[in-house]
Amino acid sequence: MLPQVVTQDADSVWISPGKGEWLVGFDALEQAMQAQNAALDDIQIQMSDETIHISPSGDMVWATNQWVFNARLGDQTLAMPLCCTWILEKRAGQWVIVHFHKSAGMPA
User: Fold this and answer.
1) CA atoms within 13 A of residue 28's CA, in its CB half-sphere
2) What is the pTM of this model?
3) Is residue 67 within 8 Å of 44, Cβ to Cβ?
4) Domain 2-104: CATH class, spelled out
5) Are 9 and 24 in contact (CB under 8 A)?
């Protein structure tokens, strides 16, 4: 579903918590997602603390939420807390993600 919900603008930027994970353009994002999906098994995301804000014009939304990203890498179990920010824009009657940022959550 990635191509249907994410902008395919060549200058879009996707930022992740890992070193060097500053992805520019849809192709870079798609390649990173494919590599992640190939390397990990049993990916599950638990989401909480979602807040959604709608612009006064009604054509832009920004949202925040927290994730716990769970997966298996070989025989190792991963559970990574992430803080996420999303920006969506309404284009031709459809909402598309134009920016997404996730960073590693800090323990309390």
Assistant:
1) 14
2) 0.76
3) no
4) alpha beta
5) no
What's the 3-state SS for the chain? CHHHHECCCCCCEEECCCCCCEEECHHHHHHHHHHHHHHCEEEEEEEEEEEEEECCCCCEEEEEEEEEEEEEECCEEEEEEEEEEEEEEEECCEEEEEEEEEEECCCC
Task: Tell me whether strands 94-104 and 13-15 are parallel, antiparallel or unpaired.
Answer: parallel
Max Cα-Cα span within the chain: 49
pLDDT tens string 13-72: 787 666 677 888 888 888 888 888 899 999 999 999 999 999 999 999 999 999 999 999
The residues spanned by each domain of the chain are 2-104
The sign one gets for the Cα dihedral 83, 47, 85, 50 is negative
Q: Please, is 102 exposed, middle or buried when counting C-beta atoms within 10 Å of its C-beta (0-12, 13-18, 19+)? A: buried
Rounded distance, CA 71 to CA 82, Å?
A: 13
